[in-house]
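stage 2 :: seqdesign
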């Protein structure tokens, strides 16, 4: 953990939080940065606020996309495998034949048409969060502002 007392000017730091939005409010600031987002950290379960449009707009979303692309199953599987630390939403067919939409993050990628281990960020029970996504049954994937649809 970082010691707040030891932080000094020009230190390089990084903050990464997977969180669920609690509120999204427009504030009235004269400098034009009038946005505030309140969230709950999904790992440590604490609440926090983000203030400033620039910071909010630099966040990645598992839900939003501005572009839709038709892709092959192989290309979509490659995108999932390469997701790294980015949040995503994936729709796939489970072993029982039912469709599943999962918002998550990649834990352990597998080979191209295998099964990747992902963390289901909507699962409230932390012990049940790990799931497998079979690359061969993916229908679509939202990642990094693009919805990749298998055609």
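stage 2 :: out
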């Amino acid at each position: 953990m970082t010691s707040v007392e030891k932080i000094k000017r020009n230190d390089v730091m990084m903050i990464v939080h997977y969180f669920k939005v609690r509120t999204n409010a427009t504030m009235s600031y004269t400098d034009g940065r009038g946005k505030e987002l309140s969230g709950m950290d999904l790992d440590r379960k604490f609440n926090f606020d983000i203030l400033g449009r620039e910071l909010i707009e630099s966040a990645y979303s598992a839900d939003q996309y501005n572009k839709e692309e038709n892709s092959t199953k192989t290309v979509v599987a490659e995108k999932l495998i390469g997701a790294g630390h980015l949040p995503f939403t994936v729709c796939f067919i489970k072993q029982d034949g039912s469709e599943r939409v999962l918002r998550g993050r990649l834990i352990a990628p597998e080979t191209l048409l295998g099964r990747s281990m992902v963390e289901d960020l909507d699962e409230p029970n932390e012990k049940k969060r790990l799931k497998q996504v079979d690359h061969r049954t993916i229908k679509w994937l939202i990642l990094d502002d693009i919805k990749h649809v298998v055609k």
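stage 3 :: structure notes
- The CA atoms of residues 17 and 113 lie 30 Å apart.
- The longest strand covers residues 99-108.
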